[in-house]
Amino acid sequence: MKDTSPDIQNVYRELLMSKSGSDRLKMASDMFDSARTLVRCNLKSKNLSNRELEWQTFLRIYKRDFDKSTLDKIFARYFSSE
Length: 82
Description:
By secondary structure, this protein is mostly helical.
C-alpha cells in the first residue's frame, strides 16, 4: 500500500540523499536499535530467561533470513554453549 504521493516521495528521497553516507548509516543503525528495543520490551513481558530473551529477539529480527535447517543449527549451537 502506498499512501504517499510521488512528489512527496521524491522530496523525501532527495532529503535522505543530501545526507552523507555516514549520516544515513547512523540513521539506519539508530532505527535498527529502536526496533530491537521494541522487540525486547515486548518479549520481557513474557518472563523469559536472559538466554531465551536473546534467542526470541534473534528470531523476531532474523527468522525470515534463514531456512529451518539453518535456524535449527543456529539454535543448537547457541544453546550448546550454555
